[in-house]
Structure to design on (225 residues):
């Protein structure tokens, strides 16, 4: 499985935008970039995914670099509820469906 | 609420014992996955079933086994339990057995082996 690199932790303030980076320099052409998050004492939760173009949904935006070797998850206006561990995961469309979780980024939101 | 249910929420048992964890997927989902989350190993994939058949295996010990029933619920059986098996066990489901469908996770079962 292609590897991703994320900062161990980040901190932001409530109601401010948050940019969570992910590096995936060995990404292949068929790898989709997925983001999941795990809130305290809960199971992981799907956030967003994309292949080449930037993507938006009700939870977040995903900005993908032109060379696809990095991506950024954007929370436009963080709330206390967004405090979680965020995982950036590469998934090959034709490969195994399992999710391979790294260490993720622990996001702390200050009130 | 993801629509995936897991029972029990907590389980405390002794070394050497056997336990069964149960998972009901979201309505209509055909794939079920089991993951283990421990402090030292993080979140690790154990096994996937699709429509009753084993589809993929990960870091699942021989002491562990799983199955998916005709009604699509799944059970994870853990036997000869050791202290190191203490962990959170998550079940997830997705619509199909291929592609990159998002997975929906249950609330987990916390297993404590004493």
């Amino acid at each position: 499985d292609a590897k991703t690199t994320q900062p161990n932790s980040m901190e932001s303030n409530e109601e401010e935008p948050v940019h969570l980076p992910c590096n995936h320099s060995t990404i292949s052409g068929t790898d989709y970039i997925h983001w999941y998050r795990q809130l305290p004492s809960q199971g992981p939760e799907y956030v967003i995914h994309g292949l080449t173009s930037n993507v938006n949904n009700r939870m977040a935006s995903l900005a993908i670099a032109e060379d696809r070797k990095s991506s950024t998850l954007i929370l436009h206006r963080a709330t206390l509820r967004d405090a979680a561990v965020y995982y950036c995961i590469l998934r090959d469309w034709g490969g195994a469906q399992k999710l391979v979780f790294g260490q993720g980024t622990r996001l702390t939101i200050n009130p | 609420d993801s629509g995936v249910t897991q029972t029990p929420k907590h389980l405390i048992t002794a070394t050497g014992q056997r336990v069964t964890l149960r998972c009901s997927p979201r309505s209509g989902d055909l794939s079920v996955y089991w993951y283990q989350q421990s402090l030292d190993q993080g979140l690790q994939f154990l096994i996937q079933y699709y429509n009753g058949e084993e589809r993929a295996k990960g870091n699942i010990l021989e002491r562990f086994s799983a199955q998916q029933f005709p009604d699509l619920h799944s059970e994870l059986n853990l036997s000869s339990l050791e202290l190191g098996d203490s962990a959170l066990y998550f079940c997830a489901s997705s619509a199909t057995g291929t592609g990159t469908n998002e997975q929906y996770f249950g609330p987990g079962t916390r297993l404590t082996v004493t």
Summary: The CA atoms of residues 31 and 50 of chain B lie 4 Å apart. Chain B has a mean pLDDT of 94.
